[in-house]
Amino acid sequence: MKTLEKKAAIVTGGGSGIGRAIALAYASEGAAVVVADIDEAGGKETVGLITRQSGQAIFVKADSSKPSDNEAVVKACVEKYGGLQVACNNAGIGGPAAVTGEYPIDGWDKVIAVNLSGVFYGMRHQIPAMLKSGGGAIVNIASILGQVGFRTASAYVAAKHGVVGLTKNAALEYADKKIRVNAVGPAFIKTPLIQKIDEKQLVPLHPIGRLGEPEEVANLVVFLSSDKASFITGGYYSIDGGYLSQ
Question: What pTM value is reported for the model?
């Protein structure tokens, strides 16, 4: 039996990169997937990739920084699939590059809104639906920068540190209610998010000698979302090619 058989899952930011890989991996393990993204074309493409492999998926256009959009995604999942058992809050942006004393205020506000508030809004609506479904698992995509700093990325670093703390808090609150909450911290992964950065500058940061692949992150997320991780909650799990060991 597949590890997510008969479960309904939500993936925010599922239209590309890590989110797409997670949505595909969820579907391959038997989950019915709601792909949420502000990018309609990308989200529908992900759904097409799933359905062509005989998987179940629908697309919901959503801006993760808007509470009402997160509510609509959960509502669509419950209406289509009868409940919600799995969610991955993955949607995120990089934001401007500037030192803290010169960081643009509007850039700060946007990064925090998407990368931190978006995760809270997601859980705020996912958790009640999971309680009605008898429990579930949430995986929040943080970053290696949820553990360490990175020059010129103060908003991103602050948001991802916040995601880790938020994950721990929710895990404590719902551990006895059959909802597990964990965070995953990828290093630099080959996705559109880093396409503006010279790969030659990034590779040496990883002792393993290469960047990560979206599918590698998805494998870890699927495990944490499944019953194989039934005693795991409140954790932060890096997938970083040794980055944080330095």
Answer: 0.97
